[in-house]
Amino acid sequence: MKLIDSIQRMAMLSKILKKESKTVGFVPTMGYLHDGHLSLIKTAKQHTDIVVVSIFVNPKQFSPDEDLASYPRDIKRDEEMARLAGADVLFNPSVEDMYPEGYATYVDVKGPADTLCGKMRPGHFRGVATVVIKLFGIVKPDIAYFGQKDAQQSIIIRKMVEDLNMDIYIKVLPTVREKDGLAMSSRNTYLSEKERMDALCLNQALEKCEEAVKSGERDAVKIIKMMEKIIKAKPTARIDYIEAVDMKTLRAVSTVSGGTLMALAVFIGKTRLIDNAILNP
Amino acid sequence: MKLIDSIQRMAMLSKILKKESKTVGFVPTMGYLHDGHLSLIKTAKQHTDIVVVSIFVNPKQFSPDEDLASYPRDIKRDEEMARLAGADVLFNPSVEDMYPEGYATYVDVKGPADTLCGKMRPGHFRGVATVVIKLFGIVKPDIAYFGQKDAQQSIIIRKMVEDLNMDIYIKVLPTVREKDGLAMSSRNTYLSEKERMDALCLNQALEKCEEAVKSGERDAVKIIKMMEKIIKAKPTARIDYIEAVDMKTLRAVSTVSGGTLMALAVFIGKTRLIDNAILNP
Question: Is B225 on the interface with A (CB under 8 A)?
């Protein structure tokens, strides 16, 4: 596995790979890899000739009061894990290389970026779309891989790629969970033992939702109330949002149907976790 | 010369050309071609294997009170002129194909897009950057050609390409002028005979500016006052702006130096014309 920390060298390699007609799979991450990332890397390795994993922690998607400084980093561990999962290149550019003095260009995806996490984290998805389009420009992937856990993110990236006529296929893979159901996330490392227990409430609420839908409930407000109850029972939990939305537009729906995404964000102590389920009534 | 009006077919052709290692030169225009455009096409033909010219009139760069509906169009004439200049493909997608229902993605270049024409035409350069990144995605050029007349536009596009790590070389060619000095523009067709005479004041003012600089004047305010005088002498002329700016950042300068761009926009009757000169004291 090659380690590349310069944009210029990564772009040069991408150009050579294109010339050699090699297909490139790309897994953009912010590092501190977990099994969710590894499942993306392994799948990419099955689909494409060369798999590039980026571990750039993107400052533009954090607001000043968020956890940029404390975001977990461990490059040695990432190297080892990416290599074992089959990555061919680990790309880790510097902030100065990605956003030099005078950097000025931003991408906005109106609509799907304005709901859910976009409402709570203004500017977040502008930062995400901007870094992803930059990474796409450097890596020139044929297929890029995202996790269903960050549902809104992958919907926004897909919309951006479609709107800007980019020739990249966006593949979204299922959320990988711990044995007890907690969705894998680099931020899980922030949780204390007590919080780690309480954090199960996100998945428990989603399971409750799926059960209710299975028994015929279609009223989004009623379902969300049931979910709230489960989460509010946990002392360290504070709901940021629970919303039933259309899977494509991310607009709120009042009745659950096929293609409804139930999404939630919950603070467990100071750690903000997200999770979601696509409902199939 | 091929005529292509579908994005899908254009994108397919671009992909084939890439596979065949053909270099692609791209001249994005809004049609109603003139000698300025033809000089871009001819130069592109010297540099690259295949020259694509687009003539899409981009609604996103017009504000509601601007001349979108009346913008001059003559596809037959464009076809003939592009063919004679050596274009290989004339690309003319529909508005519905470029901006389908639910279109959501926009590119902003902060800083250079906020001055000069950007101040007077809010949203204009967002529209320009957005359509150009889309066209780049579809055409996949190696080199794209722009005219110096639209100085701010090419500075913004260059900044976008640099910031977003796009592998495209932006080539800016000198403004082509009528024999009497008027900068070529599709909008010149709006001018009455009387206005056509008055319109010379833009170039006359720039010539006066260059003369003053040659004789040692460096004070931007003084030079701009001289220019204003020339333009105000024309009954149909109304100044939108005259500004001396840094050629790269487009920030106003008070002292003229190498790398100063003198830019102006003037309404001649209802027609808004722009022109500029790079100063070399």
Answer: no
Q: What is the DSSP letter of B176?
A: P
Closest by CA to B14, choosing from B129, B97, B137, B96, is: B137
Cβ atoms of B276 and B261 within 8 Å: the answer is yes
Closest residue by Cα to residue B31 from B174, B175, B176, B185 = B185
- For the segment B1-12, the average pLDDT, to the nearest whole number, is 98
Q: Do A107 and B107 touch (CB under 8 A)?
A: yes
Question: Long-range contacts: B252-260, Cβ < 8 Å, 24+?
Answer: B252/B115, B252/B220, B253/B220, B254/B219, B254/B220, B254/B221, B255/B218, B255/B219, B255/B220, B256/B213, B256/B217, B256/B218, B256/B219, B256/B220, B256/B223, B256/B281, B257/B218, B257/B281, B260/B220
Instruction: Measure B138 CA to nearest chain A CA, in Å.
Output: 6
Chain A residue numbers with beta carbons less than 8 Å from the beta carbon of B166 are: 137
- Segment A53-92, tens digit of pLDDT: 999 999 999 999 999 999 999 999 999 999 999 999 999 9
Mind listing the domains of chain A with CATH numbers? Answer: 2-173 (3.40.50.620), 186-276 (3.30.1300.10)
Asked if pLDDT for residue A111 goes beyond 90, the answer is no
Sheet of strand A260-268: strand arrangement:
A237-246, A260-268, A271-279
For residue B31, give the amino acid letter.
G
Q: Are B245 and B223 in contact (CB under 8 A)?
A: no
